Amino acid sequence: GGGRRREIMGRLRPLSAVLECAMVVWCSSVIGLGSSSDPTHGFTQVAFRCSIQKPYDRNVSERFSFHDGVYDFRVYSTDKPHFKGSATKPRTELRVLDHDYTSGVWQFEGDFYVASSTTGVCIMQVFGGRRGVGPTALRLHIVNKDLIAYNEGTPSKTVANSITGRWVHLNVIHDADEHTMAVYIDSVLTFFADNASDKSHYFKCGVYEQHNPSSYMESQWKNIILWRKSGRQHSIAQDQFSSSPQSCVG
């Protein structure tokens, strides 16, 4: 009867409260959106080389420069693609070499600055999208001063508001084994999502025209570092780290 029902519900309420509490703790610790931490903890820095992709009819120096530790990427909406016959839009991007991957946990770190006048541009991407979905696993766009994430073709999500006009610290972690993508802005986790991309991946940054672009697009970067976490990781001497434009070729 009613008394028996109330007795059963009374016993279930504490269990329900425990499960709810456990779920909150799990979400906070595993996903942790809005939490501040060191995203590079447990990772090992990896040496890399890079190349510069730019409009095919321009010299590298016309669209890219490196001075006092700052990588400067520039492109116009009227520029050519990066090779003849390409149907892609104009870009000037740094492409990480030597570390294309299909497994493991990888991280891109760097500081970027985008002027408020720049919009409609991708400033960072994890190349290698899911088959039948698109060419990229993740793209980070500047749209009307905000940073927007496009995660392997899923609906866009705002990662940070009013991101232009100041230096911003970025960490992007791609767990290719667990199929997840995480974005940290100034060491705060602001984006976490599943990512089932199954192609070979690599990191890029710079400027790559997207929808409704400004006529001139520019992003500046510094302190670019590549990290890896795996059982096969190994230490690399500091003098092997690629930190100068001499490692980037046109």
From TrEMBL:
Signal in keyword set: yes
Signal peptide start-end: 1-27
InterPro entries reported in the protein's UniProt record: Alginate_lyase_2, ConA-like_dom_sf
Name listed for the protein in its UniProt record: Alginate lyase 2 domain-containing protein
Gene3D superfamilies: 2.60.120.200
Domain Alginate lyase: 52-224
Pfam family, one: Alginate_lyase2
UniProt keyword annotations, A-Z: Signal
